[in-house]
Amino acid sequence: MIPSSTYRLQLGPDMTFEHVAEIADYLAALGVGAVYASPVLAATPGSTHGYDVVDPTVASSVLGGEDARMRLVGELQELELGLVIDLVPNHMGIADPPSNRWWWDVLANGRSSQYATFFDIDWDAGPVLVPVLGSDSLDDLSIVDDELRYFDHRFPLAEGTSGGTPQEVHERQHYRLVNWRRGNSELNYRRFFDITTLAAVRVEDPVVFEATHSAVLRWISNLEVTGLRIDHPDGLANPGEYLRRLREAAPSAWIVVEKILGPDETLPSTWPVHGTTGYDKLRLVCGLFIDQAAEAKFSELAGNQDLLAMELDRKRWVAENLLRAEVRRISRLGVDENDVISFLPRFPVYRSYVADGVMQNLPPGAIAERMLAEPGGELTSRVEQTAAMVMAKGVEDTTFYRYNRFVALNEVGSDPGRFGVSVEEFHGKVASATETSMTALSTHDTKRSEDVRARLAVLSEIPDEFADLVQRWTAKAGLSEPTLNLLAWQTVVGAWPISESRLAAYLEKASREAKIATSWTDRNAEFDAEVAAWPGRVLAELGSEIEEFVSRVRGPGWSNSLGQKLVQLAMPGVPDVYQGTELWDYSLVDPDNRRPVDFELRREILAEIEDTPPPIDESGAAKLHVVSRILRLRWERPELFTGYTPVSASGPAADHLIGFARNGLVAAATRLPIGLERSGGWRDTVLTLDGEWSDALTDRSHFGDVEVAELFFQYPVALLVRSGQ
């Protein structure tokens, strides 16, 4: 069942099944079509996100277990809300071996374990390497209750292997505990990116597929779950084959994949899914509100960095260092290790899909020739899996913290080298978009929220002024590392007001992901101290100046926020609202964007604005108004949201309007509000309407040649519904 819209919730100890049930009536009143939940299966003890599943056969006890899950299902069904859940087919959590009975059995019994083929382990490479030790020493091992212990870490003993010192017992096991630093180069099981506590499972094996999907498929067949979000399909050996098996097992489910498409890439046509999770649409919508004329100035401000060279350099570094173990496993299939390292960074996208006949993104060379000759072979799948890891770690998790000329563009699915999106490109891409694919502006993985990006887009209209500010502020209180310095000033402006602790946590992450002056594994104590002290210093010395500047871009930022939200919610696709973003939300990358949401406040505001369109102010009520009116229309009158035709205004400021028509509905929004004001406003710009229309946001009627200034009298956006339809 395809939902009219979704609302993403991050589940955990503070948002359990019971908590979701308590806010379900609010979500229904908002107009939401389906609750869209982060993973709900049993996860590693203490997990804050659920992507480290340890038992895929049961609902998480932390979230309330099976009884609470069924109570939630009942509440949602009574409200006619669907339930979409996040499914993780690529890996399982192994940080706490006793909590994962499959992994525990593998460690205890090695190759003879009944689960030995469940995990993607290179058994020919020797005992399973477990990189948990703080050094090369085994002195801290102990035997307690017939288990091998390393501080709080517990490991099983194979039958008949006890006796002697802990070190002697360790040598008899099917695994070896080693220095954590050896993982990146010597690990002999596949993992999720460079995270050794997430072990990949061989879901391509029908037995493993059944074992890992039985519970979820049962929920779907019982109509307790109506949709699935498939996490990281690029990590699978053969995504197309997996998705075809999943579709056969769940023919009625709405299925979208977390597939990160490049700007010119499309989803493989052989995948039987309804679409992606919307990063491709995020790029298009956000880009509309960026002034492309500012590109040269921001490039100059950033020192004219070479993005392609930086990406290639960082991808090669990742292949040589973080993912050396994966490279070596590929080389054991008869390929020179250096050739693999040279080949992987040249993928222009996350991966090709040779097994599905998608080869246009495959770099040329001898390795590619072997892959084409063996499209379903192990070499092909391992190269493609690793290429996705190289792209994610080299670009998304490194370059996007280094290439900081305009950070509103630094999101997965975007190309920071493309400065904004033209109206023509937007219409061209959206006109061919599928109605069943998800659209999104904020997710749990975005580097910054939609409202941060909307405010940053304003800076593209005043590039000279912002460049002067950065130079002046840097002279007073700059960071010593230039790229982090530029990122920091954009972050302060985009997320203002921001507390010292939030800013410090973000800059710590950003500086270490960038891996220039410091990193997570090789700390630079002096630089780390400088970064940690910077937020307090800046807020104390420049807080009033920053507030003065933000006060001037705040209003145009709100205009952009409302504009991009209206476009996203009204365009083709199934729109998702990330938790809390129905009000202004100035969150940064996780964990900042996973902070608790005040749903009681949102419930109160929704009730207050039921009959009276609110003003645009700090409360964010105007955004909630836009969200609720469109989501309710999608729920009540889905026939309005079909088809797509670009709509243009005429007159001196026509370029500042972005509009499109659906079936008896017209959506219109303001672009580049500062430039609009600078040029004299809308003046005689008109939008010609055929017949009489009513604005769902203001209840005002319009017909014929409507002055855009009149159309946008109350809000910088309008949602027109044909009267009498």
Written description of the protein model:
This protein is an alpha/beta fold. Among the domains are: 6-90 and 203-277, Glycosidases (TIM Barrel), CATH 3.20.20; 97-200, Maltooligosyl trehalose synthase, domain 2 (2-Layer Sandwich); 306-401, DNA polymerase, domain 1. The strands form six sheets. The chain has an eight-stranded parallel beta sheet with strand order 16-15-14-5-2-1-18-17. The chain has a six-stranded antiparallel beta sheet with strand order 19-20-21-24-22-23. The longest helix is centred in the C-terminal third of the chain and has 46 residues, at 525-570.
SS class: alpha/beta
CATH superfamily of the domain at 6-90 and 203-277: Glycosidases
Helix content: 40-55%
Radius of gyration: 26 Å
Strand share of the residues? 15-25%
**Low-pLDDT residue spans:** none
Task: Look at the structure and give the mean pLDDT.
Answer: 97
Largest sheet, strands/sense/barrel? 8 strands, parallel
Ends: how far apart?
26 Å
- Structure summary, number of beta strands: 24
CATH class of the domain at 6-90 and 203-277: Alpha Beta
Tally of helical runs:
24
> What would you call the shape?
globular
Q: Going across the major beta sheet, what is the strand order?
A: 16-15-14-5-2-1-18-17
